[in-house]
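Task: sequence design from structure.
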């Protein structure tokens, strides 16, 4: 081992493990708490309305990202853990950057394009964009991606990922479902 003793290496590994255990909780993020009106007019508060379940949040920060979100959401609602009621799915469209005078037109288009059965779990957000971008790991160069978050019942984010819809990304996400 070229001059380094086994004891030194063991101590270094132990120190790394201790630092990892001690600091591990620091990096855990929670979703921003919110109360918003879903597309069907119901007030939703997150994470309170997770109802003690884990939640999948499919977040879009642009129109193109929203289109990607729809592809993920259509597939996610068919997952056994979702069908069995163990996990809940919400789609979130972050619209804070949209000009105020255009927002009613955007909402009208969303209500027209999203099936009524999905509107109760579809949340247009007009505030806290910065916080959602931070927790989702948003980057400007990937603005048209769909951002997936898997959150515990208390809103602690367990896993995040983003990208254009693909079977590979979907398979990676599925590995983390309860």
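Answer:
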């Amino acid at each position: 081992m070229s001059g380094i003793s086994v004891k030194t290496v063991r101590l270094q590994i132990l120190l790394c493990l201790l630092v990892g255990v001690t600091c591990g909780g620091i990096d855990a993020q929670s979703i921003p708490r919110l109360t918003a009106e879903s597309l069907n007019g119901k007030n939703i508060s997150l994470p309170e309305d997770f109802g003690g379940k884990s939640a999948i949040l499919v977040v879009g920060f642009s129109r193109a990202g929203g289109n990607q979100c729809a592809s993920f959401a259509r597939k996610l609602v068919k997952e056994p853990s979702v069908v069995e009621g163990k996990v809940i799915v919400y789609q979130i469209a972050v619209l804070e950057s949209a000009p105020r005078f255009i927002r009613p037109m955007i909402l009208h288009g969303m209500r027209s394009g999203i099936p009524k059965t999905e509107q109760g779990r579809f949340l247009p957000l007009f505030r806290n964009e910065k916080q959602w971008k931070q927790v989702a790991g948003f980057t400007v160069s990937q603005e048209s991606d769909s951002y997936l978050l898997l959150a515990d019942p208390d809103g602690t984010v367990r896993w995040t990922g983003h990208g254009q819809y693909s079977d590979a990304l979907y398979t990676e996400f599925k590995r983390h479902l309860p």
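The chain has one domain: 29-174.
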